[in-house]
Amino acid sequence: MQSLEALTREAASLADGPRRVIPILSAAETEVGRQMQICNACRYCEGFCAVFPAMTRRLEFGKADIHFLANLCHNCGACLHACQYAPPHEFGVNVPQAMAEVRGQTYLDYAWPPALGVLYQRNGLTLSLALAAALALFLVLAAAMKGSLWGAAPGDNFYSVFPHNLLVGMFAPVFLFAVLALGMGVRRFWRDITPATSGAPLNRPAAAEAADAVLRLKYLDGGHGDGCHNDDDAYTLARRRFHHLTFYGFMLCFAATTVATLYHYAFGWAAPYALPSLPKLLGVVGGISLMAGTAGLWRLNRRRHPLHGDLAQKPMDLGFIALLFLTSASGLALWLGRGTPALALLLCLHLGAVMALFATMPYGKFGHGIFRTAALLRHAVEKRLPNPIGLGAD
């Protein structure tokens, strides 16, 4: 049954004719709007994160406002543990959970192509690992047909197992599609939330502030520097630290691949590279960091308080964490297995994990970092302008 607010908006839209369409809120969006009205009257949590200062600039919450606020939320749980209206209070205010449900909806709504948005609902742990295993098995069969599945490759050369051009032909389309799909999705998201966040263009100071918030994970400190919550009322910086290990580990691995590509095409230096070459240093440090970060996030996710997020998204979260861990672990195993008969088998496992990671990237948890960065950019722009409702100071 539609809520009274949704019916009111629909009636207003019909009364105004075809010139103006008022988006109808979903049940999850309506719940965020209800809770934000309560929080706007209380404002106890105003210093916790970016959500609450942004909230105070609004008297009502349309679809674009709710999508913007939901993607500003870092799901740290600090506001839930501080809230006097949290369950079992009759108001039932649980901002982290309500925001998480809307974030999941935004990933679905802004998926590109739209028909593939349903993959967000099915991209769980089992599917992610099954896809990695299937791709690895395909590569194993291909290597076996060439007779190069078991036995040391000449000079530890990966390209004696799979030619360089074949690998590029397999991975480049998957990677480029992932970039395109994510780019198209966040472009639509940006276009929708910009009018709701003043409409002012992005500027250099705002971009610098948002970049600082992203790179430091500023809003996982609970607003006071002691951290947020995970499975109880205790403050912890563990989520922030493990996110840092995961993010920077991934970026170092990506940098290793980028440098190796430059070596290959610009200088004609073919892989594999040995220590202390730059690609290998970046890859080893990044791989260890990524393994440590994802192992920590897995443990925290399994222990997370059930009121902190949307339980329906947990399989997607765990699937993404597992693929990142498998990618880093198989990459390090491949390096340690050089010169052994298992080299080709380890290469197949690593390539299968990497391809599964990029194939699911546009429709998995990776997107939350992209959408959250866009929301932080708009928040940094909006906060530099006078408060449109003139209530209090920013």
Automatic annotation (TrEMBL):
SUPFAM superfamilies: 4Fe-4S ferredoxins, Respiratory nitrate reductase 1 gamma chain. InterPro entries: Citrate_utilization_prot_B, NarG-like_sf. The chain crosses the membrane at residues 125-145, 165-186, 245-266, 278-298, 318-336, 342-363. Keywords: Membrane, Transmembrane, Transmembrane helix. This is Citrate/tricarballylate utilization protein. It comes from Variovorax ginsengisoli.
